[in-house]
Specification:
Two copies of one chain form a homodimer. The first copy, chain A, is α/β, with parallel strands linked by helices. Chain A is 42% helix and 17% strand. Chain A contains 16 helices and 16 strands.
């Protein structure tokens, strides 16, 4: 059976930042690494070769979306996610917990991330506002599909069964993500449930994993909201379970991230990889890595691309602005991505104005290249020992 | 100055079908050839490399669309269409006449082709139904933009100026396309106008062409509706002018094409290339080539792809049908296109259902490969002398 391992190659002095290698049955991930999101078994608007071309090492797909459509049985019959979507490298699937949270307490509060973007967020929101909210019990979560309103149940065992059918290299325990608006009492109850679900996920996973040719690694998901003692309790509890790595979940405000992540990484076993779920803005990457994070996933690079926005070293730029109509140079003249090597900003502006699909493709390529290579550069700076200088210089220009 | 030429390499016995080479400043086109449409300086949902990958020899962009957005001045400043859109091979631009026709008499009669597809046909139709229709005089056409309702004028001189600014290798004289519903009296008036506009286009073109480094070839556009004598008059009149080739325009019913094209190709100079404007269904390709057509352009392959429909040897197939949800083989197992080499029908069905942009890309690749290679196969069958057998066998299966 092909297995999973994590090796730390170097560690920055006086810091938790580290460089390592995650080995999976589908290849290695050099960490820290940005993991590209491919929600519905496709990185939106890109072929797998284009995803490879931006330097992506791995793709994360969403259990919730794939469970509803096309259904995990179809993916399994297709030979698993890798074969289904023609991606040969390492893959992650999340637990479905975050989406279910989005359909429950979080719904309509600006923290939901369920709409897949291209089918029209407004029509999904309209459907959802008429539907019933998700209900959470100790057994699991009953929820209503954002696609057709049909009723479903997700629980730790079910999430494991789905993720084993999908066949990603790294999968996550089913967890309850809480709202930052929830009271302390609720956070305590939810956390205990998350820990019980972690145990149940592990039991089900171990049962299922023996039957497979290729080992799937299971990450536990640390929760605990904005409370230090709950985060520490979660890290301690999960850290003592036989997980292959750890996700850090939750819906924080930006300023919390480094602090909340720091509480957790002080406690989690040093020799296991840590993944920060759903975060990947420039500041998150620097702060997260400094706090001991190894991998990240985030929809931003492709989502903002579809809205005509790109990352540049000087911050985000909306290319639909009229001032770009006659800018006959690339987005960033020194960028080595396919888009910057072959197209001018004026052309991209034109594609956006004409609502041409190619704009989503070309801007996604640039943005994924930008974020992926930024993390590559951070990795190199840790190895070279000049992380702090790199961070301060990069952020000074980016957030100027 | 790099110039333009057309050489006939072989001619099918007892037929007008022929094999040749069009040489342009940006390379050769082996004819007969299917020319891929790239309306707004982009083949929808594809990178130029993907367009090259399907075997496309040339791309046709639309003068009307590019005049309105981004404007020919922007394209010229960018270094011309080739550089602007990063397509190195031969390019055509049409005259704008067809789109202006779509905004006038044809509007709302199911023969308009103005909406670019992705910005929502319904919203364009709504805008248009509130706008004024195009007005045609001997000077030119006054029309209202489908984008913002602004007023514009296109005339032979203006169309030439725009097409010279865009810089395609093969451009078309400004013509008046008539509705098949128009009376004979109107067809006569319109045809005389088209001939006068052809002369004016030629004069303006010759003036502009001397200033350029790379020769742009000008095709006259034969009109005349469904009337044999008018078509013959048009072919004779334009055939005697100094055009580099000829377009055959008009809005016919399917059954007319071979007949109407035949009237014209009997008269047009044999040694100049003929392009059938806006037609490219399977039957059109066989009938057109047999009637002496050298090149075709048509939006169908990419347009139907965006609606989830593909060409197969057994006819068109809509992949959104539930019966494809678990078909774990390519669209056509013996197809050598990128899509069929790497993805199953079940995956494409999933992408369509999830409204993922990648479905437009993958289906467009398959459809353009299908049509482009079908014309390649027809070309080979002419050279091998077995065109008639190939045609009858292919059509028997395709339209079974």
């Amino acid at each position: 059976m092909k297995t999973f391992s994590f090796t730390i190659k170097s560690q920055l002095a006086n810091s938790k930042a580290r460089v390592g290698t995650i080995s999976t049955p589908h290849g290695e991930i050099q960490t820290p690494a940005f993991i590209t999101v491919g929600t519905a078994a496709t990185v939106k608007a890109l072929t797998p070769e284009q995803v490879e071309g931006v330097g992506a090492q791995a793709v994360l797909a969403n259990t919730y979306h794939l469970y509803l459509r096309p259904g995990e049985a179809v993916v399994k019959k297709a030979g698993g996610l890798h074969k289904f979507m023609h991606w040969q490298g390492p893959m992650f699937t999340d637990s479905g917990g975050f989406q279910v949270f989005s359909l429950g307490e979080a719904f309509g509060k600006g923290i939901s991330k369920v709409a897949t973007g291209d089918e029209g967020k407004s029509s999904v929101n309209e459907r959802m506002s008429q539907a019933k909210k998700a209900k959470i019990t100790d057994d699991g979560v009953t929820f209503y599909s954002h696609i057709d309103g049909s009723k479903h149940m997700l629980a730790p065992e079910k999430s494991m069964q789905i993720q084993h059918a999908l066949g990603a290299d790294i999968i996550f325990a089913f967890d309850e993500c809480t709202s930052p608006h929830a009271k302390r009492e609720y956070q305590e109850i939810a956390l205990e449930r998350t820990h019980n679900w972690a145990k149940r996920s592990l039991v089900e996973h171990q049962k299922l994993n023996t039957k497979q040719e290729k080992y799937q690694a299971l990450y536990g998901v640390v929760q605990g909201g904005q409370y230090k003692d709950l985060r520490e309790l979660s890290a301690t509890t999960l850290g003592n379970m036989a997980f292959d790595g750890f996700g850090i979940g939750g819906s924080f405000t930006k300023d919390d991230i480094a602090t909340a992540v720091g509480w957790v990484t002080d406690i989690l076993p040093k020799d296991k990889p840590r993944h920060l779920l759903g975060m990947g803005e420039v500041i998150d990457l620097f702060e997260g890595i400094e706090a001991g994070i190894d991998t990240f996933d985030c929809v931003s690079p492709t989502r903002i691309a579809r809205n005509g926005t790109v990352y540049t070293k000087a911050g985000r730029v909306s290319l639909s602005n009229a001032k770009y109509a006659q800018m006959f140079i690339p987005i960033e003249p020194d960028c080595q991505c396919y888009t910057c090597q072959n197209f001018t900003t004026a052309y991209l502006h034109h594609l956006i104005k004409a609502q041409e699909m190619l704009s989503a493709t070309l801007l996604s390529i640039h943005n994924l290249y930008f974020v992926t290579h930024l993390v590559d550069d951070i990795r190199a700076s840790i190895e070279d020992g000049n992380f702090k200088e790199f961070k301060s210089q990069f952020l000074k220009v980016y957030y100027k």
